[in-house]
TrEMBL record:
This is glutaminase. Its EC number is 3.5.1.2. One of its GO terms (biological process) is pyridoxal phosphate biosynthetic process. Belongs to the glutaminase PdxT/SNO family. The keyword Lyase applies. The active site is at C86, H186, E188. It is an enzyme of class 3 (hydrolase). The lineage of its organism: Eukaryota, Fungi, Dikarya, Ascomycota, Saccharomycotina.
Length: 208
């Protein structure tokens, strides 16, 4: 049985767990879902979701608890799947455009990411997005952007495929190879809509 972990150092990890458990229940997937705080828990996982929250806090906690080298090793293992949402996207990126000294990223996703690209908390928004190009039939996903980052530059055009770009040209969803996914927004905060999680499980976890 494959195991999907949600990094639980900080942020919206419980929301991810709820969506994943709902998918497992409804689709009867042969999957286990756990929260991950320790190297031992991480070692049981085939895939890891890094949630939204605050990348500076997540980075600090990972350093202090000694999780950083374990996380780094896990996400760089090509047999493992990784999905970062919002702060999670920042945390897995190769390069930060701003406030570099506040986050020690996992340097996995070959992009340069800009934190808080839409401004402060008050500029947060929900946008209905048409993801049907990559998620069959998903024409109207409620994407929640909260002090969201954007992918400002793809550093390796061969490795990273942009999946969704906003009208102003910012990339807000991208994949690298067949095992790495990143989103600027929070599918875990879409109420009663687990389509994004289901797609992740099908394409990135169950297929491998
Ligand atoms: N602005 C946050 C950061 O830089 C991310 C916000 C979020 O995850 N909602 O980490």
């Amino acid at each position: 049985v494959k195991c999907v972990g949600v990094l639980a150092l900080q942020g919206a990890f419980l929301e991810h767990v709820q969506h994943l458990e709902r998918c497992v229940l409804e689709k009867e997937y042969d999957l286990k879902v756990i929260t991950v705080k320790t190297p031992e828990e991480l070692s049981r996982c085939d895939a890891l979701i890094i949630p939204g929250g605050e990348s500076t806090a997540m980075s600090l906690i990972a350093q202090r608890t000694g999780m950083f080298p374990h996380l780094r090793k896990f996400v760089h293992d090509p047999t493992k799947a990784t999905w970062g949402t919002c702060a999670g996207l920042i945390y897995i990126s190769k390069e930060l455009a701003n406030e570099k000294e506040l986050v020690q990223p996992l340097e996995l996703l070959q992009v340069r990411v800009r934190r808080n690209a839409f401004g402060r908390q008050a500029q947060s928004f929900i946008q209905s997005c048409n993801f049907s190009q990559f998620i069959p039939g998903c024409h109207d996903f409620p994407a929640v952007f909260i002090r969201a980052p954007v992918i400002e530059k793809i550093l390796d055009e061969e490795a990273v495929k942009p999946l969704f770009t906003l009208d102003d040209g910012f990339i807000v969803a991208a994949a690298q190879g067949n095992n790495i996914l990143a989103t600027s927004f929070h599918p875990e905060l879409a109420e009663n809509d687990s389509r994004f999680h289901d797609w992740f499980l099908q394409q990135f976890v169950l297929k491998q």
